[in-house]
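During the no-cost extension, the postdoctoral fellow (Dr. R.K.) reprocessed legacy sequence entries with the updated structure-token encoder. One reprocessed record is reproduced below for audit purposes.
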Amino acid sequence: MRLVTFAHNGSTRLGVLNGDSITDLSRAAPELPTEMNAFLSAGEAAIEAARAASGDDIALKDVTLLSPISQPGKILAVALNYRDHLEEVQEAMPDFPTPQTPMLFTKQNSSVTGPFSPIYLPPESEQLDYEAELAIVIGKTCRRVPKERAHEVIAGGMVANDVSIRDWQLASQTMTMGKSWDSHCPMGPALVTPDAFDMENIDFTCSVNGETRQRSNTGLLVFDIATLINYLSTVCTLHPGDVILTGTTSGVALWMDGQPWLKEGDVVTCDFGPLGKIENKVEKDPVGTVIG
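Re-encoded structure tokens follow.
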């Protein structure tokens, strides 16, 4: 099942994506919450009600798809979680140590944007970069989850782009300041439930203006999804709607010859096969000083 958050006729609602149409759950199953975090918190009964819903379809072309999770409580991201990405870093920085445990940072939830919304190029930096990633969404409140039970707490997967401002990232030991700019976490197009894909075997690519920059398979993660859930939930309680960005592969602009940063007008496409693809155009940040 492919769950979506969409805007239509002035309101934001949940639906089930079926090809070129969306079953509007606000009408087909009006007893269900209309916001994804609340929907996931309602548990298996809500999932089954959505799966059984039918009728009241809206054409996909008539809606605007938003990030399935618009306000995740936490965005927990993993650095250097593909061997080839670690190798390209160590080639440039020979003394960089190989992580023995997952290397974590956070993105602020104000960075979330839609699967086809613009990525903003801020005036403060030209070092705008892309990172295609599998996003895992938590579906149950959980703590200290054993690896063998990690599958029980996964609501599904999405495509994400961990957009980064590299000079701001490298200026901070935590990386968070370079990872949290507004519009720098496009996600979607749908939250795909685990029965519909094999999260450990997804071929994926990231292209800029049609040129493939990244290509890999999620089976090549250094720390797999069960390990990440076990590790993270040891420290903090995970809640429905929390997002784990599982890491990116080699081919980011930072480590390419000439550092081909994203520029205004570029189109970035992250394609994860059964999860779909997101596509975002780079635009100048239109927002100046905002107070109040």
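The mean pLDDT is 97. The chain has two domains: 2-66, 75-284. The remaining legacy entries will be reprocessed before the final report is submitted.
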